[in-house]
Amino acid sequence: MSITRAGCAALDSADPLRGFRAEFVLPENVVYMLGNSLGALPRRTIEAVSHTVTAEWGRDLGQSWNTAGWWDLPEVIGDRIGNLIGAGPGTVLTGESTSVSIFKVMSAAVRLRPGRRTVVVESEGFPTDRYAVQGLAAGFDLNVRDFGPEGSLADSLDDDVAVVLLSHVDYRTGALRDMAADTAAAHAAGALVIWDLCHSAGALPVEVGAADFAVGCTYKYLNGGPGAPSYLYCAPAHLAEAEPVLCGWHGHAAPFAFEADYRPATGVRRFGAGTPPILSMSALGASLELWDKVDIRSVRAKSVALTELFIALTEPLGLDLATPRDPAGRGSQISFRHEHGYPIMRALLDHGVHGDFRAPDIMRFGFTPLFLRYVDVYDAADTLAEIIGKGIWQDERYQRRVTVT
Ligand SMILES: *Cc1c(COP(=O)(O)O)cnc(C)c1O
């Protein structure tokens, strides 16, 4: 049975999440399949940020640290993110970039396993995750062990491994790992585990479960805005002993005592370092309001339906699918390997379909069920077929590399 655009429109009419698209500012005639890189702008964010700028900053000035609750925002917003990842109150802190959060939790985790000198990272993991660990390892004389996509995690573990850092969803292929099973494998070897949730929180149900630490960014599926702060999770069992190497006054037990020496705050606040980006926190707080109304299971169900639809519609093109074919094994993206992936994605963008390219050869399409419609997926597949079928991508202007691919 062939899929028609009218059939897709019917699916949109019956979609339980259909009301959420109107919550976002989206340009006309654009199919936005880049929400896995930078989420779209929620309408309410405009109002919220404007209020923070004009009333809180412009009128109440420095008093807003108290009166507008700025001081507590990292924990208040952290608790709201905690709801999306199965983490209890007081275990999640927002602030800084994901790279910095990885450094913080990795350093704290290594200190919780004295005597063990090896950390395991994914060879195909997001580079910044690897770089943060490599920097820490260079400074603290740790061994970094690569764990490849084909190998079994258990084979990379031994009694020298202090910490394992894993991505829940692979940023290139979209492959989804079994968090509970990998966490159990790491623990069986006496290691701690840190999960990177950048491509899963907000895209599918996440349960930190027995994980020791987790980190994630908020500008992808959570739509927090460019440069929105990351979050970190610390399991309750580690909260009293975990001490990050990166210390600052926002993590001090008594920041306004201005003591000469560092003493960690109680609770997850100890992971604080410098002054948080309040304007970005304001934007993030607004976008999280949407999540209070969303059933994440509906998000996952629609994500599976949208990705299945895209695979079915693009099947005649004979592309090399890099994403697991079984929906249970993938996040909310579809990737194809293609030697001309870069110019194809540039041509698509020029025709109103936003996706991206990840070197060396990955064409990546993100599916954000809150605003992406079935008809959008139909149109994207149609445009992709035209660009490949007619060789439109061969135009010289699509070959030029821009800074951000
Ligand atoms: C997007 C992403 C990051 C981003 O790190 P930043 O420090 O926030 O720029 C890190 N890790 C993974 C796996 C990502 O997908």
UniProtKB/TrEMBL annotation:
One of its GO terms (molecular function) is pyridoxal phosphate binding. Pathway: Cofactor biosynthesis; NAD(+) biosynthesis; quinolinate from L-kynurenine: step 2/3; Amino-acid degradation; L-kynurenine degradation; L-alanine and anthranilate from L-kynurenine: step 1/1. Its cofactor is pyridoxal 5'-phosphate. Coiled coil: none annotated. The modification N6-(pyridoxal phosphate)lysine is found at residue 220. One of its GO terms (biological process) is anthranilate metabolic process. Catalyzes the cleavage of L-kynurenine (L-Kyn) and L-3-hydroxykynurenine (L-3OHKyn) into anthranilic acid (AA) and 3-hydroxyanthranilic acid (3-OHAA), respectively. Belongs to the kynureninase family. HAMAP family: Kynureninase. Homodimer. This is Kynureninase.
